[in-house]
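Teaching note: in complex prediction, the entire set of molecules is handled at once rather than each chain in isolation. The prompt given to students was simply: 'Predict the structure of this complex.' The entities are:
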Amino acid sequence: MNQQELITKLEKIAMVEEGSLTTDSLLKDLKWDSMMALEFQALADEDLNLQLEPTEINVAVSVGDLCKLVSVTS
Amino acid sequence: MSVRACLRAIASYLPEGRLTNEMIVDRYGGEWTAEKVFEKTGIRSRRVASEGEFCSHMAVKAAKALFAQDPSFGSDIDLLVLATVTPDYLVPLTAALIHDELGLSRSAPSFDVTHGCAGYVYGLDIVSAFIESGRAKKALLLTSDTFTHCTEHSEQSARTIFGDGASASLIEARDPGAPLEQGAWIQAAENCVDGSGAKHLKVATGGARGWVGSETSPTGQPALVMDGAEVFSFTMKVVAPHIREFLASRSLEVSDISLFVFHQANLFMMEHLRKRLRIQDEQFVVRIEDVGNTISTSIPLALETALREGRVQPGAKVLLTGFGVGFAWGSVLLEYAG
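The expected output is the structure of the full assembly:
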């Protein structure tokens, strides 16, 4: 999965318009909540075979931080 | 063992009020659409208790629906267990209110269990123990939650997940040597807790810590505070292995189980768990689209649906698994008559 594909999936998780997110987008502006964090963790597990620790996800503040967590770059 | 516990019958009650995805989208606006909410959660609509309708009211209605199945069901109840995290009051126990409303015998012990989404499996385990010890012959296990009273003040996503509902199950003592005409033997039960997870799924207000102000929710109103990443981690790292070990310790494999009835948390988490355990679609019961996550009622409601749809064949082994607040989790293995 490349970065754009991941961002598209994050747009679906956050229920925002496709194409509206960039790596600079802040999670607080998306009203990122616990259910979205859960979905992101599930995505990492299923699509990337990555088992993220909750502490890693909970310190992320931007879409870019989430991309780095799963080592997905442009 | 001189007697064994049999899950004889189940009934449910769903309140009339509905909270649809369209109503949620109207309320919160933004870029949410009804279809996006459905794609995320697998839920289109949830039931909502009416004004003045609380846990005890819904539980009594479920019990009466059960008694309506057979006139003998409501007589000689000698144990009442209520699973709820939305009691009418903190004091007194809601089981006492229900006990009075149903006119049960004073010698029928009655109590609440507060294990949330694991409430039904904990309840079945407790009832089985009473029955197999000889202390009860005919038990009523009720589940009832009006969690929408709480999600009203919770984060937006929580509003999309939870719905209200109640169930009533009749569990009887039966001679293990006699054939079972109706219902299922409660073959095995195993329930667990890891209290280090308690902080990750909490409603801080309403208890003593909230009374003295030492701990409140972010809004000051009763609200669910959840660490979604911790809950997911718990589900995959603890619940999935628990299910594998539960089956393995009984020399069973996934393929030996006719139906898996899990707590109906939300569709994508259930699907994730299903795939992790390599459970086939036809073995998996889902009842969430029109009711949402009904906390302790989710398992009996899904099981009742499977029974009504004819998915439970004679002799079927059915595994119920609940997990959630506490963290508490557990499984019960049923074997149906036939």
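Point out the following to students. The helical segments of chain A are 3-14, 34-48, 54-58, 63-69. The interface with chain B takes residues 12-13, 15-17, 20, 31, 33-42, 45-46, 51-54, 57-58 of chain A (CB under 8 Å).
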